[in-house]
Write a structure and sequence with these properties.
It is a single chain. The protein is of the alpha+beta class and 298 residues long. Helices cover 16% and strands 38% of the residues. It is elongated and about 75 Å long. Strand 15 (253-258) and strand 16 form a beta hairpin. The longest helix is centred in the N-terminal third of the chain and has 17 residues, at 51-67. It is built from four helices and 18 strands. The strands form five sheets. A five-stranded mixed beta sheet has the order 4-3-5-6-7, with helices on one face. It has helices spanning 3-12, 51-67, 94-98, 151-167; strands spanning 16-19, 26-29, 36-39, 71-73, 103-110, 123-132, 137-147, 176-181, 188-193, 200-201, 209-214, 220-228, 230-237, 243-247, 253-258, 264-271, 274-281, 287-290. The chain folds into two domains: 3-167, 3-Layer(aba) Sandwich (Rossmann fold), CATH 3.40.50; 176-290, Neuraminidase, CATH 2.120.10.
């Protein structure tokens, strides 16, 4: 399921009450209600040099949880507690009970080169703790590690952990969307994070590019381009950068959709002036069948 579909499923799911794993706590969570008070102070810094990284991690997690629709994000200006730790026992819950916080998220961020994370400097780490304030119980405590150049992904991982710990369902943050944008003056295909950050151009052909769709493994993208004047269908391997022509009959070659295993692509293609549905091999473009089809992969 691609990122956009996951988001739509999240938005339309009915409200429910879930029990946090390994806890005897029931948290009433209603998607879209935004009514569970959540506080997330700035990360604890065990060593200097992590200020910028910590800011990005916190911002990514805050943005994700704000847009999740589950939580009422409490203004930092109202936090009573200042300068305490993140681990259990390093702070008390009384200040958070005063502000009627229900979920408390605390982090500790380690800069690259920190021996407690990765002495080689290739990775950065964040310890994340999720607490249920009314009972003082820890719902989750986990260390996350990513490449040093990707601090926002630490924030996405933490946000996903918060959602999992409080709803019982996995989060979708850190996934990417394929979109059409005209930033360059032409309609090109871009990949963009769900939070609106990290925009990457996937095409730069100066033509009209439309209908992008991800392969199930997220390693390829299919789309229609007019770069040769005709609306032809292409697939790009995002690992190697190689682009293959999948369908280029005269007329329409558009609206691609991968099968669940990624081996086939369904598309609309012209046949003697009319359009029909075809299923082709996602690697070679060889036709598999034409006309009315069942669900992909059947």
């Amino acid at each position: 399921m691609n990122a956009l579909r996951c988001l739509l499923v999240l938005l339309v799911t009915c409200g429910w009450a879930r029990t946090a794993a390994a806890q005897s706590i029931v948290i009433n969570v209603k998607p879209g209600a935004g009514d569970v008070p959540l506080a997330m102070p700035q990360p604890v810094l065990p060593s200097p040099g992590a200020e910028s990284i910590a800011g990005e991690v916190w911002d990514a997690a805050w943005t994700d949880l704000s847009m999740s629709g589950y939580f009422q994000m409490q203004d930092q200006k109202g936090y009573v507690e200042k300068g305490k730790g993140a681990e259990p026992g390093s702070f008390t819950f009384d200040p958070w009970k005063l502000t009627k916080t229900v979920i408390l998220v605390k982090m500790k961020v380690y800069p690259k080169g920190d021996a407690a994370c990765d002495a080689t400097g290739a990775k950065i780490c964040a310890d994340a703790y999720v607490y249920h304030v009314p009972t003082g119980q820890k719902l989750a405590g986990k260390r996350f590690k990513v490449e040093a150049a990707s601090p926002r992904y630490l924030g996405h991982a933490i946000a996903n952990q918060v959602v999992l710990s409080t709803t019982g369902s996995p989060g979708i943050f850190g996934t990417r969307l394929a979109v059409v944008g005209s930033k360059s003056g032409n309609k090109e295909i871009y990949s963009i994070g769900l939070d609106g950050h990290d925009v990457q151009a996937l095409t730069r052909n100066g033509a009209i590019n439309l209908s992008p769709t991800w392969s199930p493994d997220g390693k390829s993208i299919a789309w229609t381009s007019y770069k040769k004047a005709n609306p032809d269908l292409y697939v790009k391997d995002l690992t190697t950068g190689r682009t293959r022509t999948i369908s280029n009959v005269k007329g329409v070659n558009t609206s691609p959709d991968f099968s669940p295993d990624g081996a086939q692509i369904a598309l609309a293609r012209s046949v003697e002036g009319d359009s029909d549905i075809f299923v082709v091999d996602a690697r070679t473009g060889a036709q598999i069948r034409q006309g009315k089809i069942g669900r992909m992969g059947e």
